[in-house]
Amino acid sequence: MNEHGLSRLLLGLASEDTEPTTMPTPSCLPLPRFRTALLREDWTDAEQRHKAGCDVCRQTEAQARRQVWHPSLLRLFWHARGLVDDADAARHLQTDACRRCQRLSILLQADRLLARLATRVRQRAGDTATRLGRMLASGASALLAPASSGLRAEQPFAFEAAGHSAVLLRTAPPLLRLERPGNAQTPVLLRVLLGDRKDVREQFTVPRPGKEPGGLHADLPLERLPAEPLTLALYEVDAAVLGIEEVSQLCHAFAAARKLDPLAVPAWQTWASHALKLAGLDAAVRPALEALTRPAAGAVR
Ligand SMILES: [Zn+2]
Ligand SMILES: [Zn+2]
User: Fold this and answer.
1) Has residue 19 got a pLDDT over 60?
2) How many angstroms separate the alpha carbon of residue 68 from the centre of ligand 1?
């Protein structure tokens, strides 16, 4: 860039900063309101209308959204299960009344795998707490907000972390389509929790290589179209924590994947053969994983 171009660019930046539209007006919302409304999701119609026409308030909202603090999935889970005394998490959920974290707490509390692991942590069984911590640290969450015009054919979820994406497809049966970054050589077992106003569904899936290099893809069938708003949480499962309790869910998830998406079968089989090499694998899980790795397991019956 020549000197003339550079000074034009700098002038352009400076004039953007001082544009009158970036100054708050008397009708703009007070700063503390952004935080409470973001946490409680209770914008009034008048506030929504003002934001729609005001750049300043939209910018302030985006900034407040970036600054707002939420406890990690692990802290939410420990708190929900009463395993630790976490004053910050308690204040956030009760006094601040964060709707996002309240929904995630319900989701995490409904997960039977996590519930079983929490019991083992209470009994101080082995290194369960460490494994559980790692699993939830791998987690991500998203929200499907109610659409004013009803559910579209492909309704996207809003993820908080970059890289993940999910859409709800209005097919028969309805599908949850996940895309995430990952390595095709070392497939991972994902726990997927999906909750609407009435109930929480828990499923397993092993994402397989997608169209984009470095991207993984999974389709999860749903029994029915859930009601909105929907919260989605997913985390990677350490195969060493699986027990007899999870075997039927695993077999069910594999059978569903084989029927729906034959490309997922090799990913499941690679995951299972890796898991079979784990020293800590539960003996009760072993036969199910061995059955899954047999070549015939991939054939659609
Ligand atoms: Zn404003
Ligand atoms: Zn929160």
Assistant:
1) no
2) 19
Q: Which residues contact 255 (CB under 8 A, 6 or more apart)?
A: none
Helices (H), ranges, the chain: 3-17, 31-40, 45-52, 55-67, 73-80, 87-94, 99-110, 112-122, 128-137, 244-260, 264-276, 286-293
210 C-alpha vs ligand 1 centroid, how far in Å?
43
245 CB burial (10 A radius; 0-12, 13-18, 19+): middle
Ligand in closest contact with the CA of 51:
1
**For the chain, what is the mean pLDDT?**
87
pTM over 0.70: yes
Between these two residues, 222 and 145, which has the higher pLDDT value?
A: 222
Residue 142 CA, ligand 1 centroid: distance in Å: 27
Could you tell me the pLDDT band of residue 248, with boundaries at 50, 70 and 90?
Answer: very high
Judge if the upstream peptide bond of residue 229 is cis by omega within 30 degrees of 0: yes
Measure the CA–CA gap between 163 and 153, rounded to whole angstroms: 22
- Within 10 angstroms of residue 209's Cβ, the number of other Cβ atoms is 19
Cβ atoms of 122 and 91 closer than 8 Å:
no
